Model the fold of this input.
Amino acid sequence: MRSTKISIRALVVSATLTVIPLMAATSAFAQTETILHNFSGALTDGYGASGLVLDASGNLYGTTSYGGTYKGGIVFELTPGAGGVWTETVLHNFSGGTDGLEPAAGLVLDAAGNLYGTTVEGGGGSCTRGGPVVGCGTVFELTAGVGGVWTEKILYVFGVRAQDGIWPYSNLVFDAAGNLYGTTSLGGSHALCYMYGKTLTGCGTVFELKPNRNGAWTEKILHNFGAGTDGEIPSAGVVFDAAGNLYGTTTSGGPALCGENGKLRVCGIVFELIPEGTKGWNERQVSLGDSGFSTGLAIDSVGILYGTSDSGGACGNDYNLGCGIAFELSPTAGGTWTLQTIGDFGSGSTPSALTLDAQGNVYGTTDATENYFIPGATVYELLRNATGSWGYTALYQFNNGSGGGYPSGGLVRDAAGNLYGTTQAGGKNGKGVAFEITP
Done:
């Protein structure tokens, strides 16, 4: 379940409860779901999982925001064994304090198999979230040692210096030199942001972490959101193109208005950050709030961007301007971008981040927002047709029962075409599952 603390999703996205698919769909659900793990929320396990990452040996890794020894979330590994049985191993329990607390995004692997991620809280920075000081979040590394023991190292603590970013909800990405990049949802040099009557501390940042020879890492803020009609409150990570430009989304800000449950808000933007040497990074708005951008982007080999939004599409009314779309942004020779809707989702079917295969097909999930008992949470595929149009196939539908419900964190795909992901509800213990969808 979602946190009762302040969360970016809670500030930005209000639930719409009816779930009616709007696209014509092939929905035979011929694909097979296999439950790899039922999360329990016990002290020896976690719950509130946020997607998976796959290593070269076929092991899966992920995080949960809650549970574990200190109830502050865990990092876990799922290892395949004989007879299709998967074994969970808890690699780290987050405790708060100088350690991280509440990892809310997935992980990234380096070439040596080390794991990197973010926690929303913990670390010791001076931040409050309606209660005691819990810290502004961290970037951490987990390294495997002798006997399968993993060691955590905190690479950076947010909020320990003036105008720093705080509360990273994003996953991380490496560049070719081994530097890490991500976003913080709040903080930065722009003092205040406003949403639904709330005053927020800073509008968010994009940051770089560079490793030093002494083993420490140095943070550099590449962009502070919130000036004028700029975007505000990024809650997802960034992606690189072949030229070294960064792309991402913000959940609010920008020049356009979107509606949710009778309230209007600015929709957010898709942005590009262009490195300009000693001048720093220059932001350009790629898409100006056509719908409510809430998830990260995927990019293909020719630089086309793919993403989802929590509004936009055909099912809107005066104050709900659509119920969510999948979109494609194609660069043109003149430096502009062409936006095309490639999937239009039914009411309540909030889509997640997208995954691409080598043929350019797109995979994702919808979570049916917070009404778990109405069918509508799916794993789906979008196939590009010869004419350039897109066809939608629902591969699997969740029912909040033993197969899970409320999928979160997107999907990862292996070489055989199997899809892996997590849910935050359903399963044997009602705390979500890790699943595999076999074509």
Observations:
- The mean pLDDT is 83.
- The chain has one domain: 18-438.
